[in-house]
Amino acid sequence: MKFSLKLLLWTIIVLALALGCSGFYFVNSVFETSMDRESGQAMEESRILRFAFETAALNAPAKYDVLADHTIEEIARNLENGGSSRRLRISDENRQVIYGSSDFEGDDVLLAQTDQTAGTWQVIRLGEHYFVQTCMAASALDRTLYLETMRDVSEVFRERALGFLVYRRVTMVMLVCGTFIMHGISSWLTRPIRLLTRATRRMAEGEYDYRAKKVSDDELGQLTLDFNRMANALEDNIAMLQAEIQAREDFVAAFAHELKTPLTAIIGYADMLRSRQMDEEKHFLSANYIYTEGKRLEAMSFRLLEIMVTRHGDLNLQAVSVGMLFQYLHDMYENNRKMRFRFQHDDGMVRAEPNLLKSVLINLIDNACKASDPGSMIEIRGHFKKGRYRFSVRDYGEGIPKEEQKKITQAFYMVDKSRSRSRNGAGLGLALCAEILALHGSKLRIDSEPGKGTCMSFVLKGADEDG
User: Fold this and answer.
1) For a tag site, which of 11, 46, 103, 216 has the least CB within 10 Å?
2) pLDDT, tens digit (0-9, with 9 covering 90-100), for 287-317
């Protein structure tokens, strides 16, 4: 059952119980008040009749020492005829009836319970009518008699029945009206829940950009905002997973392509060497091509291994001397006759893993060499700024187009594939640099303009900086 229907059902049940209990209490309270009034009037009328009876008994002829039964009958008959619809009965000391009205049908229980000091009354039902029966003692010429009266109170009971009937009808009308009103209210109150349910269903069907509409400022409105925030986070995670899956597919495709090209050449030249006779020069060229492509595959495998180890290995940061680092690079490239190098740095210490930091700089320098013509200048600089150390490698080669700059840190991505392969490039150097710098809390910055060269830089924390 829907929540709105449950809310409606329980509201109607509570409303019906409240109206029923309040109606019963109200009608019954009015009835009891009316009965108290009628019984009081009946007792008062009985007292008046007793007074009238005792007065008439005192006025009886003096020749009687004791009030005779026939005199009592005569007095009672006069009292009965003195009022309309008056019903009475008089009994003697032994509670034997001396006189009774023809329509007096009261029981004898009340007479048996009445003493000489107090009057009593009860409500009796005779057919379709209700009466208040009263009984009290009367004294007349040394005789103790018992006077009983009956007062018709059927109208009070009819009013009570009518009150219950009217209240039942009013209750039914109120329940019907309340059902329609509460149906509208419950639908309005549960609208945020329905919108959340719809949003959940749409998202389950794959519409991750669907959001629930906020229609209230209460707790359900806050729940809608929290749900939308959760949906945003979920959509971002799904997009990130999809991008990662796509990147892996691209990586596998690029890796397969990079393997296919050198392997095809290696297999082709190896087949030539084993299947035909060639002069010494062609034999050397074929073997050299096989060796070159093999070395390129070896370098690519080493780079891939370094990337995997970097991603899953533990990083031990320590203080590294920038002077010693630049001396190491100077010694490595001072014998390189194809390029000109310029080293310039500020002395200091940085927090890094020494071998990985060397790998980053060597890869950046190698990429600068590959992007430059022989004899070009490669500048390697380092300087402190606000407690941080900035490394940069600048070349004056081809440069990188703006649209390519965000892709060159992807594995196997090469701006100029033919140029890179001719220099044993596999498109893994910058991917490795990006991974290592991410472990150091840094990232590679690329400033390049086609035809004017490229400057690649990154920033590390100084060794004296906390964290």
Assistant:
1) 103
2) 887 887 777 677 666 666 666 666 655 667 8
Q: What type of residue sits at position 365? A: I
158, 173, 188 - which closes a domain: 173
Query: Distances from the Cα of 32 to the Cαs of 5, 28, 40, 228, 393, in angstroms?
Result: 40, 6, 12, 61, 105
Asked, for residue 144, whether it belongs to a domain, the answer is yes
- Phi, psi values for residue 413, rounded to 5°: -85, 130
pLDDT of residue 309: 61
Total domain count, the chain: 2
Is 256 inside any structural domain? no
- Tokens encoding 273: 């060497």
Beta-sheet strands, E only, within 141-274 = 143-152
| pLDDT score, position 432 | 74
Q: Give me the sign of the Cα torsion angle 106, 107, 109, 114.
A: positive
Higher pLDDT, 251 or 353: 353
Is the pLDDT at 126 greater than 60? The verdict is: yes
Instruction: List the one residue out of 108, 98, 102 whose CA is nearest residue 67.
Output: 98
d(C-alpha 340, C-alpha 167), whole Å: 107
Amino acid found at 43: M
pLDDT digits (tens, 9 = 90+) for 248-270: 776 666 566 556 657 777 888 88
The whole domain housing 364 covers 314-461
Q: How far is CA 156 from CA 110, 130, 153, in A?
A: 22, 9, 6
7 Rama class: left (phi>0) / alpha (psi -120 to 50) / beta: alpha
Does 420 score more than 50 pLDDT?
A: no
Quote the CA–CA distance of 399 and 415 in Å, as a whole number: 10
Count of CB atoms situated within 10 Å of the CB of 417:
15
CATH number for 414: 3.30.565.10
- Please give the radius of gyration of the chain, using alpha carbons only, rounded to the nearest integer: 57
> What gap in Å lies between CA 185 and CA 305, rounded to an integer?
66
Is the pLDDT confidence value at 415 over 50? no
Indicate whether 340 belongs to any domain: yes
In a domain, 200, yes or no: no
Boundary of a domain, candidates 173, 206, 229: 173
Confidence at residue 165, expressed as pLDDT on a 0 to 100 scale:
92
Q: What is the mean pLDDT of the chain?
A: 82
- Output the six-digit token pair for 182: 């509460």
Q: What is the CATH number of the domain that holds 86?
A: 3.30.450.20
Residue with tokens 């390049």: 448
* pLDDT surpassing 90 at residue 211: no
